[in-house]
Specification:
heterodimer; A: 248 residues; mainly alpha; Four Helix Bundle (Hemerythrin (Met), subunit A); B: 102 residues; flat
């Protein structure tokens, strides 16, 4: 029988890994007592929050690419059918769109103040209040979006076999409404996910998990919320306001 | 404090000022859409939208106080958008100059 050490020399001669951990742990815990939320692979809280912020931005860059593709499609089709897009956009309700823009901007303000309240170790009630306000505004946005979508279904403006257009450019109008539903639909899905994230963050805040030393989750959730707001800042003029509203 | 960890905390007044600027931007966008400026309408509304987005990124998203590495990563996303729209700008501008490929 050949000796096992011949085939797996490392197995025999290496000391067990546990011994190494034992050597590290006392230094980590006794010489440098740290915040309970500090994970072991970070030097300190500042490095931890920097790493989390950076990671969230990497995700947001992929989101920029995701929405960027749709904006590119919009640009190409609008360039091909400028009059048709203007005519189709004219049927969107500018008032609802503008109200929703304001609602989202206010929700971004309450989100920023939620992050700030955690940064200054405000009472859990204050933190939860700002997060709940953000969620109420997000739900308001989705409610108004539902009213608008219902209106489009009632007037047969949903692309597909039942699409009807009385204007001069039925085909470009159908392309416009395809893009309208893709872009605002994807945005609305992001809003719904945002509401889910906020309910988790709100629960954590209620359990007094955030203070000036540790507020990474609420900060990172805020980055997501503001990003979704930025997408709408571009969607609103590009979809609602290209209809030549000066002709009224 | 035992851990000596302090991120920049902006005063509430800064958030309210940025908020005010965003609301004014929205009103300007709607107002500009009602004035016939030809192709300039698009330029104006996109300039206002870019300004609003910059305000949100710098102040609400705290990029103004973030590390250089976060700056680079955040800008890389917008740099990619610039590349994308440059390519589409090439596609759209075909034939504008006589003699270029259509």
């Amino acid at each position: 029988m050949p000796d096992h050490a011949e085939h797996f020399p490392g197995r025999i001669h290496q000391p067990p890994l546990v011994a190494n951990l034992d050597a590290i742990q006392p230094r980590d815990h006794v010489e440098h007592p740290h915040h309970p939320k500090l994970q072991h692979h970070f030097d300190d809280m500042a490095q931890q929050v920097d790493a989390s912020t950076l990671g969230m931005w990497v995700f947001l860059v992929t989101e920029i690419m995701f929405f960027g593709g749709l904006f590119a499609a919009y640009l190409v089709y609008r360039h091909a059918n400028p009059e048709g897009f203007a005519e189709a956009s004219h049927h969107l309700n500018v008032t609802w769109g503008a109200i929703n823009t304001i609602v989202l901007i206010v929700s971004s303000l309450t989100m920023a103040l939620a992050v700030r309240s955690a940064q200054v170790s405000a009472p859990a009630k204050t933190q939860v209040a700002w997060i709940v306000a953000t969620m109420v505004l997000g739900a308001t946005f989705l409610g108004i979006k539902a009213i608008e979508y219902t209106d489009k279904f009632r007037h047969n403006l949903v692309p597909g076999p039942n699409f009807q257009w009385t204007g001069k450019h039925p085909q470009p109008a159908e392309i416009f409404y395809s893009l309208y539903f893709c872009m605002t639909g994807l945005h609305a899905i992001h809003m719904i996910i945002g509401l889910g994230i906020m309910s988790v963050i709100g629960t954590m805040a209620w359990r007094r998990q955030f203070d000036s030393e540790y507020y990474t989750p609420v900060e990172v959730a805020g980055l997501y919320w503001h990003f979704v707001d930025i997408v709408w800042i571009f969607l609103f003029p590009l979809l609602y306001l290209i209809g030549g509203h000066f002709t009224e | 404090m035992a851990h000596g960890f302090h991120q920049h905390v902006a005063p509430p007044s800064m958030y309210y000022k940025v908020f005010g600027a965003l609301i004014i931007g929205t009103i300007l966008t709607v107002a500009a859409a009602k004035v016939d400026m030809g192709p300039l309408n698009n330029v104006v509304m996109l300039l206002i939208a870019c300004t609003k987005a910059t305000l949100v990124i710098l102040f609400f998203m705290h990029v103004r106080w973030s590390s250089r590495l976060t700056w680079v990563v955040a800008m890389s996303g917008f740099f990619w958008l610039l590349l994308l729209f440059t390519v589409i700008g090439d596609y759209i501008s075909r034939g504008w100059v006589p003699g270029t490929l259509r």
